[in-house]
């Protein structure tokens, strides 16, 4: 269910939700015209959309993740390799697997 932002249009400092509040309501419902708590007129505010930022490979690595990108059948490029790790991981050669004990912490 979408979360909409509203702003009181009058000076209603007595309302605990003054000056702005957020309200969950179905998208098919009409916008609120009055505050559900104090009855003062409100206006819907258009805000910035929530955009999820993609992490860079180095940021993934620093957070303890390993990113493998398929190059060929059974061959993967390790985009988050650490010193001492192979650039390519071959599923038939266990020595090329990332050293997970370095990344897993308590």
If you had to describe this structure to a student in words, what would you say it looks like?
There is one protein chain. By secondary structure, this protein is mainly beta. Helix content is 9%, strand content 25%. The strands form two sheets. The protein has a three-stranded antiparallel beta sheet with strand order 2-1-3, with no helix packed on it. A three-stranded antiparallel beta sheet has the order 4-5-6, with no helix packed on it.
Q: What's the structural domain tally?
A: 2
The Cα radius of gyration reads 26 Å
Unreliable runs: none
Q: In which order are the strands of the major sheet placed?
A: 2-1-3
Residue-averaged pLDDT:
85
> What's the N-to-C terminus distance?
37 Å
Main sheet record = 3 strands, antiparallel
Strand share of the residues?
25-35%
Q: Helicity range of the residues?
A: under 10%
Q: Globular, elongated, flat, extended or rod-shaped: what is the shape? A: rod-shaped
How would you name the oligomeric state of the polypeptide chains in this document? single chain
Order of helices and strands: EEEHEEEH
The helix count comes to: 2
Q: Please tally the β strands and state the result.
A: 6
Structural class: mainly beta
């Amino acid at each position: 269910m979408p979360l909409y932002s509203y702003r009181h249009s009058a000076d209603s400092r007595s309302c605990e939700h003054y000056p702005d509040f957020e309200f969950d309501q179905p998208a098919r419902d009409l916008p609120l015209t009055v505050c559900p708590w104090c009855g003062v007129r409100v206006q819907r505010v258009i805000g910035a959309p929530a955009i999820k930022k993609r992490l860079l490979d180095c940021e993934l690595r620093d957070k303890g993740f390993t990113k493998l990108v398929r190059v060929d059948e059974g061959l993967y490029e390790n985009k988050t390799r650490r010193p001492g790790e192979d650039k390519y991981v071959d599923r038939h050669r266990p020595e090329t697997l990332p050293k997970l004990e370095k990344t897993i912490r308590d």
